[in-house]
Amino acid sequence: MGRPTERCMMDSHAKSIWAGPLAGVRVLDFTRVLAGPSAALALADLGAEVIKVEPPGSGDDTRSFPPLREGESHYFLSVNRGKKSIVLDLKAAEGLAIARDLAAKSDIVIENYRPGVMDRLGLGYEALSAINPGLIYCAISGFGMTGPLKDRPSFDIVLQAMSGALSVNGEPGGLPTKLGIPLGDLVGGINGPIAILAALHERHATGRGRLIDISLMDGMIGLLGYLAQLSFFTGQDPVPQGSQHPNLVPYGVFPASDGSIVIACLTNHFWGKICTALGLDALADDPRYDRLDKRRERRAEVNALLSAVTQTRTVADLAELFAAHQVPHAPILTISEALAQPQTLARNMVVETEHRTLGTIPIVNRPFRFPGAEQPVPSAPPVLGEHSDAVLADLLGMDAQTIARLRDAGIVA
């Protein structure tokens, strides 16, 4: 043991580290691939204990997605930080019984199988709420629990296509282009936690949990936002605009001598600033361009006038000019540049953590901040079954002999 002064310093440091607002909340995570794991990840980032249940052998499908480093997948690492992994054979009666026992001691269950799969296993909401009435059960699927497509498998690009999002993405006159970020899946990681936290709040008043039905398709329809309202208003379908805005001009990517830069004239207030920054003061009050609607009608003219100047300057020069004149702008960064930029580093959005196999690795940090309360660096994504023994012993009180027998039988790993 350390000296008293050392112990006081250690205790003081320990008290300054805060797990997060969901400390003490336990999540049983039956998800795999991306939509479900991203929802569970948000809860882990907020301090919940997340126990990820994986099948024997390969575990989560994404553990085998290349590229790999020493057997560990970049894909799995991206959405499973801060979680524990337990391997359970849910096809074995004893494995199923363990899953039910864990659910009885959990606050939240998340799963992203097709509707009906968990019911057939005996792990659906009705079965688990019977043994744990306070359980919040979040089911995430492509099309939800109802409707003609409820049994259809879905993937990100399918959801982008069927929600209309893909139809407005791409260059004018070209083929639609899939969003680079898999938003069709990640929308589950946005809407799932929102609904779960609302149900958790409700449970404080009622003492009872609730079934949550999250449809990724619903989520994508919800994200259409003003594009949906534009269709309602005009009766016409919005069309691809590339990086431009359907109604705002100038708004999009403009050429520079060594690359390109984004200019965003969100309101008329910025039009004069853009003109002054580019030495085009005469355009600011030109009656052909002095209102949003006029510039929209002359989109090609406006873009050509600005591009004639921007293409003679470097990205750095333009960024300096626009910053000086308070024009909304941005250089187009690569992923590695975005991760290394000063703002990202100042916000500690890239941190290092210790992985059981890979050693010290960089990971993206949690995107939540609570000023005045410091959370620890997230624990590394677990190797397959890393916490099986600990979860069974600590949570279910199993002794080493019982755990060894279960392992020998292939029920846990």
From TrEMBL:
InterPro entries in the cross-refs: CoA-transferase_III_domain (IPR050483), CoA-Trfase_fam_III (IPR003673), CoA-Trfase_III_dom3_sf (IPR044855), CoA-Trfase_III_dom_1_sf (IPR023606)
Key words of the record: Transferase
GO molecular function, one term: CoA-transferase activity
Annotated Gene3D superfamilies: Crotonobetainyl-coa:carnitine coa-transferase, domain 1, formyl-coa transferase, domain 3
Name of the protein described by the UniProt record: CoA transferase
